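pipeline/complex-builder :: batch 7 item 3
reading input block
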Amino acid sequence: MSHGEPRPESFADEVLNAPGGEDLVHCFSCGTCTASCPIQWVEDAYNPRRIIKMVIMGMKEQVLSSPVIWLCSACDICYQRCPQGVHISDVMKAIRHVAIREGYEPVRAVAQVNERACSSCGMCVQACPYQAIELVPRWVTIQQVMRQHRALPKVDKFLCQGCGVCTVTCPVSAISVVGVEDDGVVAQIREFAQETSSRVIGR
Amino acid sequence: MVDASRHPKVDVRTYTEVERVEGFVGNFKVLLREKSRYVHADRCNGCGECAQVCPIEVPNYFEMDLAPRKAAYVPMSQSVPLVYGIDMDACIHCYKCVEACGKLNAIDFGMEDKLVWEDIGSIIVATGYDHFDPSVIPEYGYGRFDNVITAMEMERLNNSAGCTAGNLIRPSDGKNPKKLAFINCVGSRDKRFNPWCSNFCCMYGIKNAVLLKQSHPEMEITIYYMDIRTPSKGYEEFYNRAREMGIRFTHGRPSLITEDPETKNLYVHSEDMDLGQVVEREYDMVMLNQAAVPQPDVDTISSVLNITQSPGGWFMEYHPKLRPMDSPTDGVFLAGACQGAKDIPSSVAQGSAAASRAGRVLHSDEWEIEPAVAVVWEDRCVSAQGKKCGVCSRACPYGAIEYERGKPAKVITAKCHGCGGCVAECPHNAITQMHFTDAQILAQIRALLAENPEEKILAFRCHWCSYGGADMAGTSHFEYSAHERGMRVMCSARLDSDFIYEAFRLGAGAVLFSGCHTQDCHYITGQPVGERRAERLRKQFEKMGMTPGRFRIAWISAAEGDKYAAVINEMQELLDSIPKEQLHEEVEKLRPQMEKRARRMREVPQVEEALEFSDRLAVAMIQTEVLT
């Protein structure tokens, strides 16, 4: 019981109350996470310590509209090294949770299903480390003549991290991550092979 | 230490362990094991001839294993007494030392440990602290990378009496390093290892840096820190001086150290928070300012001296602010880092305070204690009838009850702190607590529940925490239900199940069982005893079909006035939510069971008898030799 009016829910409270956000307040800004982060190597703007600090300071608009909150790939190197046991990838998920609730769209590539090629085997569902794919029964038109009731994978764009495990697993190449489709990757490899005239790949 | 050993009234016993402690304040009997050095101290003159001829070399613990020592050795040059000893684990029994000793004839391979009993008035524990082993932190690579060393190793390398005579060299190639990094908070402020701040590492880190910079001004020194903590007198000024000397401070905790396998140089990865970017800098050598941790054998000392530990393994003080140098056991005092990581000035202050507290014991003929002590009702103690029992002795957190089958249990009054745990545990009602006799407590319960008991919330509070919590609720003007009726006992361990049964038998609406949080218990292990009993009761009542929440358990500290008020209000809400008739029905239904369970009620509740008993107790107390 305390005196006076209850405090209005701050942005930090919102993140704290979202699943995974419980650790937020334990952060004492030592910077171990930022220095550990492999994403930080390629994207300077991504600084988990700064994002957590901004959440605590209530900079809601800046945090939620920032494209970098979608970058964490949950490798959890930072979690292993964090002296305060803050599960940073979970905190990032909590921030995204709030962002989605507030109507912000994820800024990143997600997996897309080619429904015509899909054989409904469900291997992608098993392979996805983020449980972002589920099979949903639907009526689909096959080869413009046949209507069929089939279970097709549906990708949750909020859960998908764009890792591409499903792409590799799919036996009929019916699922791929936008921007890193098989063709594009193969073309890049060939280009690289030509540049370095590698004998491993041949051609 | 050399000074102390020369003082006529100081008897320094080194290489000696305390095996057992018996007795009580002012009258301890201590069993000491004087370990065998295999050298007669009275004959050895410390010439060191034995060490010179000894062919065996082992790592020198005092030099942090950076240098060798012989199997015949002194731990360090300031050892007291300066007597050599033989390390029997390393000795190969070549007996060259015996020859070298010659006429002095000080070395005796047949020597054995000596056990001595000593009369001791008071005891000061000053066992210090140990260093955290950073090799368990994989990212810093201590143990894998040659040039990552600890601050203590650095201390020896930079000491003019140390293994390199003060010449700071890299372990990998023996060259003098030019670029150095210090990393603070290694293993401390880290929930994976030790959550505490080790208090003095910031200062010794800066001290080492300043010492190095003074002797090698060209050296480039960087200290990586999370926060620099320099709170004592003159410390902040020292930190300022370090910066003026050109020592660099980087705000950011390193996440990784990597090694160049050829040059054995090290790369420290960290976020430089002031620059706002991740930096990777190259150094010749990295020093880890490792955490202070309790000694590995604190559990042994705890059990020998009957003193408790705070979370983490530091010895627990009697009161964190008012009695930081007293242990919970009378006559045992704490000094220095064994009670918590602290720097030299604080250790000296606590040591002096502990010495003066100990002196107080030595100079007094009588020792005052609280009068609320336990007393045994000898005709009732089943042990006197030759039966096996000893429940009271096991319940006592202070070891104040002597139990021997065939004799009535005996309370050593000077050791008793008056928690009343034994009283509640005794299955034969043969032990009671002065000022908190069963009769007194039952009389209070009956008076409080004399009218409209079903409306009442009877709150049992322990003296130290919950009673203070209720007080705090009052002084802070937190409103809580007026139907609450509070009762004080010294400890939740005193709360006999019978009191709770009796309260419900009389028809109490709700009963609160409250006490300290486990770590705050003022009677070492009183609260856990109370907690176990309370949980057992809660399960019993649940099975009986009592509305859950009518018997409530809450651990409330003296500062938690708001919590006390909230708990009482929640209980009131619960009571309000039960229709009157239903509550009445429940009380009537449970009454016979409560009566049956309160099996000892038949024996003690008569106030007249209890009063008579109290008189007899008073006489017994006067006759007790400790008080006369």
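note: The mean pLDDT of chain B is 90.
queue -> next item
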